[in-house]
Amino acid sequence: MGALENYFGLAEHDSDVGTETIAGVTTFLAMSYIILVNPFILADAIEIPGYSYLQVVQMIAIGTIIASAVAIFVMAFYANRPFGLAPGMGLNVFFAYTVVIGMGIPWETALAAVFVEGIVFIVITAIGAREYVIRLFPEPVKFSVGAGIGIFLLFIGLQEMGVVVPDEATAVALGDIATNPAALLGLFGLFLTFVLWARDVTGSIILGIFGTSVAGWLAYFTGLASPTSVLPTALLSEDGQLSYAVVTSPQYDISPLLFAFVDGLQDIDPLTFTLVVFTFFFVDFFDTAGTLIGVSQFGGFLDDDGNLPDIDKPLMADAIGTTVGAMVGTSTVTTYVESSTGVEEGGRTGLTALVVGLLFLATLVLIPLIAMIPAYASFIALVVVGIIMLQGVLDIDWDDPAWAVSAGLTITIMPLTYSIANGLAAGIIAFPILKAAMGEFDDIRLGQWLMAAVLVGYFYVHTSGMIG
């Protein structure tokens, strides 16, 4: 205990081992849903010959745990900050649904883009360039990207739950919820999670996922619903009978994912690959910076100028986590806003992060149980997190036309085109144009014009059919 107190400087932070431990457990419970949700999202895009869907889910879950633990340990021992990290919500959706499924890019190449982004992050963090880069992007895009991703997550989650369905006449419509047991259970779990969250219950999302899963299994065992309507399809044989093979023999071998990004570096389209790397970089860059500043302000870590001292150290944890994540088969790692729950419990040092990392590793023994979670239960997290992320619109100056148009396009283009990249690009293009129209040329930087010009070129090439 004495060694821990001395290493993490608990006394100078007016903390103790007990407080830091409780804070770490609290943060873990608040963000542990990612262990379930991230694999189900990425498995929609990652297909490995010879392995079933749930086996791939189990592989990605292990990769998620490893990448998270590595990043958190760097945060604990190098940065000495009480922040948790894991593959980011929104970035995993961009990886799966925009890059791989939407653009038709092989998942190995998408991992290669994540790896390149991680290396770039390590380099610019080491030389202290992140602060310079963050000043280049339009402020309305920075403040609106979270809300845009939130609506995108919300839309995908409702689709996966069967609440929203495709419609030829109106593009989308309300699903046949009353006759769809999975949709009914999904809505039950969604509102259960909302109630727990509103009551400020720690771990409300993970409790909602487990509660919904239990309800689904009870509906099957009591005969209220058929196994094909409420149970994970990978647990069912061809004749619809329940089989526990995936549970009793879980897939702990992740060799098909290890260093798969190396194959993804072959035969790439430079323009498309650059845009994908740029988008991963952009969203992760500002998501991490915003989270660090926000949680640090809550914990009283900022100096008199509103800056986080030695911010490059926690940023390095994000960079290393992202690089390792690409190596083990998962999307971009970022700092989690749920870290604020541990800070609220008194977490002030890296010991809190160390506890979070150890708990992530402990969940490796629970990998078989992931196969028991129905998809409609796991996607509850997307809807809940999506709604929480909408609070970002409060930081937008809607009275400023340049802000309103740029932020509005960023937020709406994402879900309407099923692409985070398109939303970001639209906002970046709009900002200098509107500022120029208002005669406020001094507010436009040369780099913003250059970015807008490049993205206009991208939209032309992309919509002309030259790239996928």
From TrEMBL:
The organism's place on the tree of life at top rank: Archaea
Keyword 4Fe-4S part of the UniProt annotation: no
Molecular function GO labels: purine nucleobase transmembrane transporter activity
Keyword terms: Cell membrane, Membrane, Transmembrane, Transmembrane helix, Transport
Protein name per its UniProtKB record: Putative MFS transporter, AGZA family, xanthine/uracil permease
Topology in the lipid bilayer: Multi-pass membrane protein
Organism: Natrinema salaciae
UniProt entry tagged with the keyword Transmembrane helix: yes
InterPro entries: Azg-like, Azg-like_bact_archaea, NCS2
Coiled-coil segments on the chain, per record: none
Transmembrane segments: 21-41, 53-78, 85-105, 111-129, 141-158, 178-198, 205-225, 271-295, 315-337, 349-369, 376-394, 406-434, 446-467
Family label: Belongs to the nucleobase:cation symporter-2 (NCS2) (TC 2.A.40) family. Azg-like subfamily.
Gene Ontology CC: plasma membrane
Compartments where found: Cell membrane
Major localisation: membrane
